[in-house]
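Please supply some protein, with fold tokens.
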Amino acid sequence: MKKHIIVSLLTTALFLAGCQTDDFLDQPLRGRQQLDDFFSSAENSERFINGVYENVNGNDWFQVNFSRKINDMATDDNWAGNTLQPRPDITGIAAYNVFAGSTYFNTFWENHYIGITRANIALDRIPEVDMDADFKARLLAEASFLRAFFYFDLVRNFGGVPIVKTYNELLEPEIRDKTRSSIEETYDLIEEDLERAIVSLPLRSEYAAKDLGRVTKGAAQSLLAKVYLFREKWDEAQAMALNVIQSGEYSLEPDFADVWSVDTHHGVESIFEVEYINDPVFNGIGGQYSTTQGSRADQGWGWCVPSSDLENAFLSEGDNIRLQSTIIKHGEPVFGDPAVTSFDAEPSENKSGRINRKFYIPVDKRPTPYVRGQHPLPFIHIRYADLLLIHAEASFFNNDATSALSSLKQVRDRVNLETNMSLSGDNLRDAIWKERRLELALEQHRLYDLRRQKINNVSRLALIMGPNGSFVKYNTEVSTDPFETTNLGEAQDKGINFDPEIHLLWPVPPEEIQLSRGNITQNPGY
């Protein structure tokens, strides 16, 4: 931790964030500046906060972006996919043959603690800066939200983690004496940060257009509602989600196809979004997923490809509207791209013969050059449909079926699906859970949902993966999918080695345990 929290912080350039060259994410501050220089004015303090945003998605494809996609590969929604390039460091995680020392766990942990360190410095130093009181409160609220965001990512992946709340704690020997806090203690800090942020963050409608992308009151409330959901604080989750619903700041996109579009930046449904741009002057500030998940026959890498099991979930629901905007299948037209009437998913090199439509950019909308790090497709971390389904699930577990059905119906109405308003009990619970799968498919929610959702106190992930899991049995005993059953470059029994005593969390990077002189302990089984 000392290496990447102390050294990297003071030698790494902080990036401005935003969608234009004078906005708040994407322009580097050149050279080395001491912390006093960063906090010499309100303007410089804002620039420092801008640098904290950089760590939401990292500054390269593998630091955070690809690690999150590997998480998606470890579910029933996706295969690892790329069968041309054997990569046991990737497919091993996806198949639960986990190598604890994987660089993907290490870079994910490292990136998040760099973000936490930057947020801590801001929280330590900004109170001393002479500036407008409201502006200062907003900057501090942004830092609190971002720190909560980073810790939420960490606790969902690794369990309880070392808590560092001030910059002074990073000085030796204190940093090496840090131990892991409990899961509950980590969540308590996240809640405290978000509750504090909510007080001073503006509503989305109160931001100028140039500031869209900064965290808002609605973003903090939505993330807090999700945190409550993960902690099974049903009453609090329902109430907090209702605050966002009643604010009137967000709504569903009328057309589901517009949610993930290069033409819909900060749309009405977007609550917390990273907006990428295409600017060859600053190579690497654009999106990554259109390449890393694209077809190998279409300038892509072929990783993280949708499963036939996911496609069947759409078909069983008669959900053609979302299916066509979620999955592209080999040999079929690409919905929304008239230039492609028969898509080449390169099934000899793609386990499933399918790719993710949400991260596909139509041919006539592709920038030049069309390369990784240059894609203008935004990434939405929290959107209104997610918030509605949080409200529906929390309402159900809070014994308020009427509210649960109301929010569920809003999501289904958009895609012309009827809602059985007499659903109750397990049938209503299962309908809400299935709706989360269909609505949010391939958006990096599935692994966390399956881990936390329980039937008879057993994680649903343990019912889907493992030797008796439904996904493993489907692929080994039932499926006749022409792509998946013929391309065995990725084993058909993916997930058979899942162990619920081990794999509900990922391993703590061994490097961190070593640097802490053993004070940080490993998760069981690794």
In short: The longest helix spans residues 133-158. The CA atoms of residues 16 and 26 lie 5 Å apart. Residues 1-32 have pLDDT under 50 and may be disordered. Residues 2-200+507-515 form a domain with the Serine Threonine Protein Phosphatase 5, Tetratricopeptide repeat fold (CATH 1.25.40.890).
